[in-house]
Design a protein that fits this description.
One of its GO terms (molecular function) is metalloendopeptidase activity. This is Peptidase. Keywords: Hydrolase, Metal-binding, Metalloprotease, Protease, Zinc. Residues 38-228 form the Peptidase M48 domain. The protein is mostly helical. Among the domains are: 11-231, no CATH class; 363-462, Serine Threonine Protein Phosphatase 5, Tetratricopeptide repeat (Alpha Horseshoe). Helices cover 71% and strands 3% of the residues. A 3-stranded mixed β-sheet has the order 1-3-2. The longest helix has 29 residues, at 433-461.
Length: 462
């Protein structure tokens, strides 16, 4: 394959590196594993990339991290990180989509892969440090610092790549077309540019590492997009309700201390009083979510009732209502609510997980296993499903299948050495020759994957 610095990364190699970063990055404390948030962002990303002409078969996965700063970054292999602050600052779904589309533009134009293989000395040092951190994790370290190293250093490399003015304009134009054809209002890109420019000026001289500093906003870029907006027919877009509920949840989730949480609650209370329609409902949902986190279950219930005024409802409201019932010891009611919600929102990962937990809490582990098997066929890469299935198998005294499911959970969350250990435990528990043979094959495949990942990372480390 040649050295990493002398040839462009192949798409397969880039994806392997991205997978390695994400496997450890999911252990970063700032990584948001909330199913509602990640499903919403990834669905947006995949909807946009469908309209990128040069992205045939391009894998896109968008995730969120807890950080109030307005920023986003792309990793190798089609992974895009969105700071919670970017979602909260967006005043419309199209504004948020403009940044996601721009990042996808960098991915499909292969700016990241080219930048990594033509990197500066400083980004090369960072790449070597990242590879070293990932190698330590593959050696079996359970330290959460490995996750911090993975995301922190990968984002630093993204900053060091310093995309050229031409690359930024290519990503703008590609993103603009994706937005337009996906049905978003392309004027959202202009509005987001204006907001990012204002934020950059406010933070000038403060060492700010926000989006405008990593993707410099030139007058030329702004003028180019403004001209393109004038040349195409545009129509206002009604924001999806999910945007407002996810935005409210992230306003609360990103608060790192009591003062930040107080500020978030104050803003939500103001919106609950002044806003109308879904924006008002979402503000009440955010207040309910904040109360639920503080274990103020009565307050959460009152806020949820206010969020539903006027007949409004959403998968997010239903999911929080189920969680509230479970935390108050009302397992049977939670199961009834979950059954009804699943009938209404069969594509919601949040509802699916809530229903699985309600089945378990009511002692229906056999039904939970069957339901989780159905969900895993639908969303095979959602780690929590495999973890819940392992728990039900264990209670049903099916110890071998419990460990097989748990091994998948560890594999999906990046703990490959632990996955191998758990599979070896399962093999020692079984006397069935065919089961042992199946486990042997899986253990061998995981060991080969570990070996290949180590070889790839050693290449970048050197």
């Amino acid at each position: 394959m040649g050295s990493a610095s002398s040839a462009e990364l192949s798409p397969a190699l880039e994806r392997t590196l991205g997978d390695a970063i994400m496997e450890q990055g999911r252990r970063d404390p700032t990584y948001i594993s909330d199913p509602d948030v990640n499903q919403y962002l990834t669905d947006m990303g995949r909807q946009l990339v469908e309209h990128a002409p040069s992205a045939t078969g391009q894998h896109i996965s968008v995730f969120a991290i807890k950080d109030a700063q307005i920023n986003a970054f792309a990793l190798p292999g089609g992974y895009i990180g969105i700071n919670s602050g970017l979602v909260v600052s967006a005043r419309s779904e199209s504004e948020l989509a403009s940044v996601v589309a721009h990042e996808i533009g960098h991915v499909v134009q292969r700016h990241i892969a080219r930048g990594m293989t033509q990197r500066s000395q400083s980004s090369g040092v960072m790449m070597a440090a990242l590879a070293g951190a990932l190698l330590a994790a593959l050696a079996g370290s359970g330290d959460l610092a490995m996750g911090v190293a993975a995301f922190g250093q990968a984002a630093a490399i993204d900053r060091q790549l310093g995309f050229s003015r031409q690359a930024e304009q290519e990503a703008d134009r590609s993103g603009f077309e994706m937005m337009r054809h996906a049905g978003y209002d392309p004027r959202g890109m202009v509005r987001m540019f204006e907001q990012l420019g204002n934020a950059s000026r406010l933070n000038e001289g403060m060492g700010d590492g926000g989006y405008a500093s990593t993707h410099p906003l030139s007058i030329q870029r702004m003028s180019d997009i403004q001209n393109r907006v004038r040349e195409v027919a545009t129509a206002p877009r009604r924001d999806a309700d999910d945007f407002w509920y996810i935005r409210a949840k992230l306003r609360v989730a990103q608060a790192r201390d009591s003062q930040a949480l107080r500020n978030a609650i104050d803003k939500l209370q103001l919106d609950a009083q002044r806003a109308t329609g879904v924006e008002q409902s979402a503000a009440w949902y955010g207040l309910a979510y904040a109360a639920w986190q503080r274990k103020d279950y009565a307050g959460a219930g009152r806020a949820l009732n206010s969020a539903r005024e006027g007949g409004r409802d959403s998968a997010q409201l239903a999911s929080l209502t189920i969680s509230l019932a479970l935390d108050q010891g009302e397992a049977v009611r939670a199961r009834e609510l979950a059954d009804a919600a699943w009938q209404r929102w069969p594509d919601s990962q949040g509802i699916a997980l809530a229903r699985a937990e309600a089945l378990q809490k009511t002692g229906q582990d056999q039904q939970a296993v069957a339901f989780l098997t159905q969900l895993i066929a639908q969303w095979p890469e959602l780690p929590r499903l495999h973890q819940l299935q392992a728990q039900s198998y264990e209670r049903l005294t099916n110890r071998v299948d419990a460990r097989r499911s748990m091994a998948t959970y560890y594999e999906l969350t990046g703990a490959l050495p632990t996955a191998v250990e758990v599979l070896q435990q399962a093999r020692s528990m079984s006397k069935d020759f065919y089961v042992q043979s199946e486990l042997d094959v899986r253990i061998r495949m995981l060991k080969e994957r570990l070996k290949a990942d180590r070889a790839l990372l050693e290449r970048f480390k050197s």
